[in-house]
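Submission checklist for the structure archive. All mandatory fields must be present; incomplete records are returned to the submitter.

[x] Identifier: Coatomer beta subunit appendage platform domain-containing protein
[x] Organism: Tetracentron sinense
[x] Residue count: 101
[x] Sequence attached
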Amino acid sequence: MFCFQVAVNTVIRDEKEFLNHIIKSTNMKCLTAPSALDGECGFLAANLYAKSVFGEDALVNVSIEKQTDGKLSGYIRIRSKTQGIALSLGDKITLKQKGGS
């Protein structure tokens, strides 16, 4: 099992908007129930899943919190059985997370 971690670095200031941006950018499915994402508490944790065209599975855990200055911080952890998909997904997330939606 390979694990790759990406620090959150974005101009987006809303937790749910950031999660939706990552889901859209990576074409992953959110495994976390929508009801678990309701409310405003300043924290968000969600699990995402994807299967590549080669049949490789990838699991992503998004864990973010809103700081007192309004910026988001946290980590995105990527797990897969192969190193290639973990690294390429990590690179894609690093590039895509910076811009707003």
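[x] Structure attached
Curator remark: The first strand starts at residue 2 and ends at 7. DSSP finds two helices and five strands in the chain.
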